[in-house]
Amino acid sequence: MIFFKGAQFPKHVILHAIFFYVRYGVRYRGLEEILAKYGVRVDHTTLNRWVGVGSGPSSTSVHSWCPLSRHRAQSV
Asked: Which pTM was predicted?
């Protein structure tokens, strides 16, 4: 369970950032640029903290079964 007490950003912004990172494997700096296009100014270290707290073990499980992340890993 994610606790949002004391968060400086709305809950939906934090959850969307975690979703983008986990689902698409976007790097933190890339995610920072994506959010900036939508008017959300956040540092990549903050995104790192959000993902660390919010994704837990689910990020590794998504990357293990997600065909897009597997394809990207093989093509690099």
From this structure: 0.64
